[in-house]
Specification:
Radius of gyration: 43 Å
Number of strands: 16
CATH topology of the largest domain: Ferric Hydroxamate Uptake Protein, Chain A, domain 1
CATH architecture of the largest domain: Beta Complex
Strand order of the largest sheet: 10-15-16-13-14
Number of domains: 2
CATH class of the largest domain: Mainly Beta
Helix content: 10-25%
Shape: rod-shaped
Order of helices and strands: EEHHEEEEEEEHHEHHEEEEHEE
Length: about 270
């Protein structure tokens, strides 16, 4: 009767060999001598259809044929992919489903191009693209230039303005508001200008009068009004603060109602 013998050959598997008694010794001798090798059967191969279907290409400049690096290549169809060309102008899409595709190429220094290509199952589709030199037309950009006064820059006016605390008026705004400083302050939130006889008084919230600063120094009005100080044409900038907003630079004394600071024009 044939018998079954287990043989272990350094692999984590057992091979069962059916043999008759007279041949079993010969087989064992061959295994021991190394003339017979048993290997694990290969694992079943998975479907590599996706890996076998590829789109490769090269983007060149026309005229001249120079490789275009950094072009954005888009593949749109059953599969959507995006790539960027390398220094040789080449791109590669792997794992592409078969079907019809739209392939487009864009680069800031060249005209864009778009083509339709067919991709067949388990094939490599090679695409050569030449694009003419020509910058892409961009939407127009509006540039607004705002003049900044060197006087106000030097005293920290714009730095304080950028913090968003208080109200600020620079020369272009002052020129639109009137010849008198009372006219300049009229309409500023938190500030009221009221007539008293033939003069105009400026008051803050609560009806009290502000403390004035001129070129960083506290100005004691002694009964004068802002219109006695200067004409608006001589003022470069104005800062207006309610009592709770006053920065340290303007706290040289009591400021119960707030501060209005004027910076005067200088020559030049």
């Amino acid at each position: 009767m044939p018998r079954l013998s287990p043989v272990l050959l350094g692999l984590p598997i057992f091979v069962l060999v059916a043999m008759s008694a007279p041949r079993s010794h010969a087989l064992a001798e061959r295994v021991a001598a190394g003339s017979l090798s048993l290997t694990r059967p290969p694992a079943p191969r998975r479907d590599d259809q996706d890996e076998a279907t590829r789109v490769v290409g090269k983007v060149l400049e026309r005229p001249g044929g120079a490789a275009i690096e950094g072009a954005v290549v888009r593949l749109v169809g059953p599969t959507k992919r995006t790539s960027v060309t390398d220094s040789a102008g080449e791109f590669l899409f792997v794992g592409v489903a078969p079907g019809a595709y739209r392939l487009s190429v864009e680069h800031i220094a060249y005209e864009g191009i778009s083509v339709t290509i067919p991709v067949e199952d388990r094939t490599t589709t090679s695409v050569g693209i030449e694009i003419p030199v020509g910058a892409i037309e961009l939407e127009p950009v509006e540039v607004t230039v705002t003049r900044r006064s060197w006087v106000l820059e030097s005293v920290g006016f714009y730095e304080r303005m950028d913090k968003g605390i208080g109200r600020f008026l620079s020369k272009p705004q002052l020129d639109k508001r009137g010849a008198r400083l009372s006219d300049v302050l009229r309409g500023v939130p938190g500030v009221r200008v009221r007539r008293a006889g033939g003069r105009y008084l400026v008051v803050m919230r609560g009806g009290c009068r502000p403390v004035y600063y001129v070129d960083g120094q506290r100005w004691e009005s002694f009964g004068q009004t802002v219109d006695d100080l200067a004409a608006s044409a001589n003022v470069e900038g104005v800062e207006i603060y309610q009592a709770a907003q006053v920065p340290a630079i303007y706290r040289s004394g009591d400021v119960p109602c707030g501060v209005i600071a004027f910076w005067m024009r200088r020559g030049g």
